[in-house]
Amino acid sequence: MFELIIKRSNLPSYLIMDKREHQLLIDVKDLTWWYEDSPYLLFDKFNFALYSGDFTIIMWKSGCGKSALVKLLLWEKRPPARSIYHKREDLSRYSDEEIQYFRRKIWIIFQDYKLITSLNVKDNITYPLRIYNLWDMVIEDKFKTIIDELKIDYLINHPVKYLSWWEKQKVCMARALIHDPEFIIADEPTWNLDREYTQQIWDMLININRVWNTVLLITHDVHLLNYIKSKYQVNIFQMC
């Protein structure tokens, strides 16, 4: 594990999240894990920590367990006892109800978007709030804030199936932000975008961290790493 601290670009102070009040959100301690049908260890005493307000990057190579780590964090795979902690509580001991509540605190920006193609942009973005039965007034207020910040008001009535890859990723980011998650996992968010749009997504992730939320970016893209660390303060963990 290593850490790089890069001086952030100049911004008005009210736009920069106060990073002094760190809270340990996720703590992975000596994680040792493998798939049941494989004789090989995928994780051998892997350690990782995510603090509130941070922009953290996990660099990985093929076969190093990126997908497995995400599944363990989301409890799609049961984590081993005493290996993954959420706010210092052993994630493996969560009840079904506690797991569902925990999952509501996280949102993923998927590399393949996971948008609902039968819905338009607005309905996709507000979907996480509607399943929680929030008042329409609250939903509309949150929605307006998000589309203004991400500058996607021109898209709101478009069916998502007609959007470009770049537009779909912006909608995916808006959907991730709208329910105020505890932290956001960005899983290879620029894997199928050309360089122009890729850089815009990177800048949006930086701004999300400045203004909105804790970001955990998982990528193998060295260009992405070099671009972000030249502009911003990041924590970097290396897998394999």
3D structure, described in words:
- This protein has helices at 66-73, 96-103, 121-130, 136-150, 165-177, 195-211, 222-231; strands at residues 24-33, 43-51, 55-59, 84-86, 89-90, 106-109, 183-187, 214-219, 235-238.
- Mean pLDDT is 85; it is low at 1-20.
- The protein is of the alpha/beta class.
- The protein is built from 7 helices and 9 strands.
- The protein has a domain at 1-8 and 22-104 and 220-240: Rossmann fold (3-Layer(aba) Sandwich), CATH 3.40.50.
- The longest helix is centred in the C-terminal third of the chain and has 17 residues, at 195-211.
- The strands form 2 sheets. It has a 5-stranded parallel beta sheet with strand order 6-7-8-3-9, with helices on one face. It has a 4-stranded antiparallel beta sheet with strand order 2-1-4-5, with no helix packed on it.
- The chain starts with 23 loop residues before the first strand and ends with a strand.
What structural keywords apply?
4-stranded antiparallel beta sheet, 9 strands, Rossmann fold, 5-stranded parallel beta sheet, 240 residues, 7 helices, globular, alpha/beta
Instruction: Based on the coordinates given, report the CATH architecture of the domain at 1-8 and 22-104 and 220-240.
Output: 3-Layer(aba) Sandwich
The CATH homologous superfamily name of the domain at 1-8 and 22-104 and 220-240 equals: P-loop containing nucleotide triphosphate hydrolases
H/E series: EEEHEEHEHHHEHEHE
Strand order of the largest sheet: 6-7-8-3-9
Mean pLDDT across residues: 85
Assembly form of the protein:
single chain
For this structure, the CATH topology of the domain at 1-8 and 22-104 and 220-240 is Rossmann fold
Note the main sheet: 5 strands, parallel
Portion of residues in beta strands equals 15-25%
* Ends apart, CA distance between termini: 10 Å
Helix and strand composition category? alpha/beta
| Outline type | globular
Name of the CATH first level of the domain at 1-8 and 22-104 and 220-240: Alpha Beta
- Helix fraction, binned, reads 25-40%
| Record field, number of beta strands | 9
**Integer-rounded radius of gyration:** 18 Å
